Amino acid sequence: MLNLFNSTLKQGGHLILESGTGSGKTVCALESALDFAVKNRKKVIYVTRTNAQQKQVVYELRQITKNRKIFGCPIQGRKNLCPLIMHNPEFLNGTSDELSKICAYRKRNTLSQSKDGCKYFEKNCVSDTSKIGEWAKDYLPTAEEFFEYCEKEGFCGYEILKSLLKDAVLVVAPYIYFLKPFLRKHLLEMMNVEITDVLLIIDEAHNLPEYARSLNSAELSSNLLELVKKELSEFGDPEIIKNVNMSGFCDEIRQILFKTKKEYVTGDDGIIPSFEIESEIMSRLKISSPVLNKIIQNMIEYGESIKRKKINSGKLPRSYIHSIGGFLLTWLNADEHYVKIITSEPRLELYSLDPGLVTGVVKECFSSFHMSGTLTPLEEYRDSIGLPSNTKLFSFPSPFPKENRKIFFVNDVTTKYDEISKDSAMIKKLEMHIKNIRDAFQKNIVVFFPSFELMKKIEVHTNKSLYVEKQKMSQKEIMNLIESFKSQKNAVLFSVAGGRISEGIDFPGKTLEIAIIVGLAYPKPTAKQKALQNYYDIKFGKGWEYTVRAPAIRKTLQCIGRLIRNENDRGAAVILDRRIKHFRKSMDLNETENVVEDLKKFFH
Ligand code: SF4
What we know:
This protein is of the alpha/beta class. The chain has three domains: 2-94 and 112-214 and 356-395, Rossmann fold (3-Layer(aba) Sandwich), CATH 3.40.50; 218-352, Fumarase C, Chain B, domain 1 (Orthogonal Bundle); 402-603, 3-Layer(aba) Sandwich (Rossmann fold), CATH 3.40.50. Helix content is 50%, strand content 16%. It has 28 helices and 20 strands. The strands form four sheets. It has a seven-stranded parallel sheet, sandwiched between helices. A hairpin with a 3-residue loop joins β10 and β11. It is globular and about 75 Å long. It starts with a helix and ends with a helix. Iron/sulfur cluster (SF4) binds next to α5, α6, α7 and α10.
């Protein structure tokens, strides 16, 4: 594997690598990239999706640099590194842009010795922080350790970390630091490196296409319009055209939202013709397109003034009228790479169909590695991200003994929408299979459903401890649920495929021995999903393969991947859907007619 990374770097190319947990891909990628960077005056940016993954990279770095001195450091947003923000519940809700404004305001006040300064920044300014830098270069702390150390000493860790980035050969950052243009520009400046000298490593890369789409998408909800009303009653409601105030304009939008919903939504959502919303606004208010643009501009400017007032009174600089103005501006300028959606809520959604609009910048790096345990089909990932056709594609088999894991599938059930809605017995059959497995084994079992909706339909009464993932659980609630489940030896956990548990939690040893996967996690055939499929059909001629089949395979493999996290783990997956047969090429499947017996044989 190391040779593969080395040869990619030698050619200045891009590599997509599928390889499971325990294969050593993180350490190999890091070793190879750091070695190349040191010898060729390059820098490495390693992007991760979660803070836990970031920590793991820092731990690997400590091992690699035991016998050689290379400085690498993690960076996170102010939410995790600024003591002023961390101890203020209102600020914790802020976006990175809002928090950056608070920080700039506090620093300005500190320098001009006005009130509302920042005592941590002040200490940074008047003290020698070089000792902290030396400690960091020596110890290689995680972002959390760095924050704790600095807070205890009364310093601002965020500012010190920023100043250390220029000395780092490796920076470990959240995805957003590289994908958002203004954050990337800032990061490269702080690292003192050109993008053409960056070796980029992307961890858990299977998340990247959808992450990039959501980063480029925008929405306007009826809830946001409610918040605007409150804001205008507090800060004043200016007239925007003769006899129409801002609140009147927002009322019109609200009415348009409900009218559009009636006309276009079937099921969850509907596609709106390109100029529908703007035409409706112009016709209701009898205004021209330049006047509409002017109104939007006024909303943004008025929002800016509200933000200034808020920040001056110690509040989060957030303005809802600014958000609506910003949304409408983006909406008006959207091109064919976006689809305009109205949902049943109702909510307007400007959905970005092409992740390449955000990730295309990766091609500018000197080299990039894209790694995950589940990237099949690799061509789909390459095309979605916008990598060149000569990108290297590799898939490594699992490093663990084959006999430690078995995947069964049951042929007499499916969650195919047509069948499940016509045949009420199908739900009963699914319940029966889950009950039979649950009753036959004194083991921890996780049942992954394709959606929360289907989870609610399945009734499995049990004497075992039953844990259930809920739709809007906070990260803390999820972690408590998992820890409690893991402490059991004979419990059942209901979860969903493609969720935080199936994609990000490790269940080592006996904390999980059987994974039941109910149905295939095909995306729901919403208007948005159909638009995406259509876009990929036009662009690559592979709409269904890339937007329906590929995500379903990945979600299934992610669920199965929870079972084996090291060479001593042993576990079985049972897929309750006959359609999985079509995915034979992507996984080693065993059809079973008596699932309980076959599982017993496996565990025996
Ligand atoms: Fe927070 Fe540091 Fe900015 Fe002060 S200077 S507000 S501690 S990030």
